[in-house]
Inverse folding.
């Protein structure tokens, strides 16, 4: 299959990641931090190596402030629900994934309010509009690094400066930026960063992380065993153990560490530039088809995503035909981000999303363009 659904999860994975997971499962996989024998200690050492590798990728000085989660959704929920209190106000945008919008909706029940800043037809958000949404009780600004619908990059540097000037906590959803954009938490002034392990970091499914700066106080989502302070019934608040209750998925975390090392060796900027070139090539081909409507900004202003529709066909139908007849994987629909589709004008029909990764080639793009040309002519 030609895989062009990397915005959902990356494929294939680096071989060193798979080898590290296999070695852990076969040779030492003890419970880290729970025992003093060599298998447990070896696993703990490798989990720490993974924590350090992911932290280094985002210029995080204190690796212990990076908490492993099962995905970005859990990381965002931990950051939002662990930080916000009754009476707080949050500013966010219409380009957010439901992993931000739904927790904020739930937090309304606890007296936390929020404002959603609109975007233009390309999914771009103006800093001035964000600033106008700030109130006296605003405590948090949370934005996506890049839209999972259009790929549109948000102006993180400017938003970070705005947050600092207004003494707000600045939280970034890095689901579509990590591994393809340089998300330097210190340069961008990011106080909380949620990332997936399985997308741009090229790690296994079921992995993610939340970074919380030392200035950020959080309450854990879960209570349980941490391997520390076992005689106390109170949940420890020390990082990272107090926020990783229960046994962690050590083989997957160790694999994530190896893939993060791979991404750092290649360079997120190099990967991002390569994906941008592929998307520019794809967008140019799509614009040459009169029956295709292309959405979003130019390739230089987005990550590796092209969003489009074929005239007279449902997005899900196009996706199904590409899979069944041409063995090409893309995603159609609303991409868990309904408000983003409303902003760009695809609320009624959704759209088809093709998303590239570092292992795709122009040959893959040519195959997709040829298939779409045939589908469009036969519709």
């Amino acid at each position: 299959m030609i895989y062009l659904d990397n915005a959902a999860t990356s494929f294939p994975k680096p071989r060193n990641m798979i080898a590290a997971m296999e070695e852990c499962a076969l040779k030492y996989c003890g419970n880290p931090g729970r025992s003093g024998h060599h298998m447990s200690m070896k696993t703990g050492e490798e989990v720490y190596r993974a924590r350090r590798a992911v932290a280094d990728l985002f210029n995080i000085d204190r690796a212990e402030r990076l908490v492993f989660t099962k995905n970005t959704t859990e990381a965002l929920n931990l950051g939002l629900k662990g930080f916000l209190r009754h009476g707080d106000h949050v500013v966010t945008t219409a380009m957010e994934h439901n992993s931000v919008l739904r927790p904020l909706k739930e937090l309304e029940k606890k007296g936390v309010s929020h404002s959603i800043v609109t975007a233009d037809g390309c999914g771009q958000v103006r800093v001035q509009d964000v600033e106008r949404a700030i109130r006296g009780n605003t405590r948090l600004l949370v934005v996506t690094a890049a839209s999972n619908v259009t790929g549109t990059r948000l102006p993180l540097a400017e938003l970070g400066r705005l947050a600092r000037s207004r003494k707000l906590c600045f939280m970034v959803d890095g689901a579509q930026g990590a591994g393809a954009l340089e998300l330097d938490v210190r340069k961008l002034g990011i106080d909380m960063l949620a990332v997936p392990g399985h997308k741009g970091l090229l790690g296994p499914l079921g992995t993610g992380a939340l970074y919380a700066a030392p200035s950020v106080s959080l309450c854990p989502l879960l209570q349980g065993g941490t391997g520390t302070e076992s005689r106390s019934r109170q949940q420890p608040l020390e990082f990272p153990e107090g926020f990783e209750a229960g046994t962690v998925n050590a083989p997957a975390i160790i694999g994530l560490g190896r893939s993060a090392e791979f991404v750092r060796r290649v360079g997120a900027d190099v990967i991002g530039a390569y994906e941008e070139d592929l998307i520019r090539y794809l967008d140019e081909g799509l614009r040459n088809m009169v029956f295709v409507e292309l959405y979003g900004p130019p390739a230089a202003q987005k990550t590796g995503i092209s969003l489009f529709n074929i005239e007279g066909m449902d997005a899900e139908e196009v996706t199904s035909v590409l899979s069944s007849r041409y063995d090409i994987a893309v995603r159609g629909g609303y991409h868990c981000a309904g408000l983003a589709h409303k902003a760009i004008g695809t609320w009624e029909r959704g759209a088809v999303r093709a998303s590239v990764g570092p292992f795709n080639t122009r040959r893959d793009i040519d195959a997709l363009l040829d298939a779409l040309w045939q589908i469009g002519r036969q519709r």
